[in-house]
Design goal:
Structural class: alpha/beta
Helix content: 40-55%
Strand content: 15-25%
Strand order of the largest sheet: 7-6-8-9-10-12-13
Largest sheet: 7 strands, mixed
Radius of gyration: 22 Å
Shape: elongated
């Protein structure tokens, strides 16, 4: 009986510790502290800026009371899941998922720990939500990097009024890229422009698929696509040699291989996400009722070096991208 009682007491104590969780951690002065895990799909300019903005905003709001642990999946969706499971084992207070596969991995792993996504284009597509209202609900919210697609189409038509064939270049494994391609195709098709999809699977076939797209197109459109953003040099080598201009979904892509973009500021998007996280951690807001937020503004930007190489004249209302 004594052994049984001891076992029951030990089990009760263990359950008590699990119930308390990391939210009961306190510093030397007795103030509550927090641990936030960031899972980032891959390292490239846009996602790096979002992570930095998120971390800066959290530190600004909570100072030393928050510890931010950043881990990069190097473009592997399965690694995103491994990272998330590690965060859950470490009993983090909140997970920030940077890019769609990271969000999907976090959503599959937990329904209790708060999750904020960023650099996610369309949450309804990413999470397969049929009746989209603007709020995910449950333990998920975040920010979207979707720039107005109709304005991106207007940009393409402004710069290339004689274009008849537009190639849609994107990664087949990124559902949010397909979402953007579908929407842009509808808008361009309504204007009498023929759109053709050219989908690569990973970095191994990006060059060959890009060449096919260039051979069949007047202009290429690349959405906010993480695989493309990680392979801009390979894409640039093909499009510049083929004299084919690229309208890019964000500034990092445009710096690498594009001529123009209507882009958000990913650092500012990360800051918005960090401010949301601070409110969740301190109890000022409930993640289940927080609507998805968007970047407050977009900017017309141009890669002047690529424009010069391709002989393209850019209107004066475009901002020149800083390229190395």
């Amino acid at each position: 009986m004594k052994k049984l009682l001891t076992l029951i007491l030990a089990l009760a104590m263990a359950l008590s510790l699990v119930a308390c969780g990391s939210s009961d951690k306190k510093d030397d002065s007795g103030e509550k502290t927090y641990t936030v895990g960031v899972v980032q799909l891959v390292q490239h300019e846009a996602l790096d800026a979002a992570t930095k903005g998120f971390t800066d905003a959290l530190k600004e709001a909570l100072g030393d009371k928050v510890n931010v642990v950043v881990k990069n999946a190097s473009g592997d969706s399965n690694t995103c899941g491994t990272i998330v499971n590690g965060f859950l084992a470490d009993n983090v207070d909140l997970i920030m998922a940077n890019a769609t596969p990271a969000l999907q991995a976090a959503a599959s792993a937990t329904s209790t720990v708060p999750i904020l996504g960023t650099s996610v284009t369309d949450y309804a597509t990413a999470l397969e939500i049929a009746d989209w209202t603007g709020t995910v609900g449950g333990n998920i919210s975040g920010t979207s990097d979707l720039a107005p697609l109709d304005q991106q189409v207007a940009m393409l038509q402004e710069l290339f009024p004689n274009a008849k064939k537009v190639g849609m270049l994107f990664c087949s494994s990124e559902p949010n890229s397909k979402y953007q391609v579908d929407e842009v195709t509808k808008l361009l098709s309504n204007a009498g422009i023929t759109c053709t999809e050219f989908a690569f699977t990973d970095s191994n076939d990006v060059s060959s698929v890009t060449q096919k797209a260039c051979d069949a197109s007047d202009v290429l459109f690349i959405p906010t696509d993480n695989t493309a953003a990680s392979n801009t040099e390979a894409i640039a080598n093909v499009v510049l040699a083929s004299n084919t201009p690229v309208i890019a979904g964000e500034s990092g892509l445009c710096k690498g291989c594009g001529v123009a973009t209507l882009s958000i500021d990913y650092y500012e998007l990360g800051k918005i996400t960090g401010q949301m996280a601070a409110k969740i951690l301190t109890g000022e807001a409930d993640v289940s009722t927080m609507p998805i937020q968007f970047a407050p503004s977009v900017t017309k930007q141009a890669n002047m070096a690529n424009c010069q190489k391709l002989g393209i004249t850019i209107p004066s209302d475009y901002t020149a991208l800083a390229t190395e």
